[in-house]
Specification:
mainly alpha; 0% strand
Amino acid sequence: MEKHELTLERLEKIADSDLLAEDFADYMEEHFLISAPGNLKASIMEQCVNKTNSLVPEKKPYGKRLLFFYTLKVGAAAAVCIFALASAPSRTILTNPVSMLTSSNISVYQKAQQITDQLNRFTHVFSRWEVNLYDKKEK
């Protein structure tokens, strides 16, 4: 079987016939298969035994130091959070934000409240519109 004989029709015939497929496999093995070097197995076994190419990764000496500094960072962040929570005003003031306002801040608070109300209305209208649009697509 020569290379110029391999047409699409010939390959289809090889795929249909087990005998032709076996002959084709033998031909490919005989003419195109590359043999492995003779010392391949010995060199692989030598590399596996050699400790520099070990499959188990080495423990790096700075790993414990990194873990220690990471622990310090997390501990410091937790301490800052606890301090911030402890220094926050009491909960009774937070539940009634209007009582914290002075007369000069009332207009700013009212403006912010109006913006919030408008955003809430827009979100509500948008969500209803989206649900209606989705329901129409399902029908």
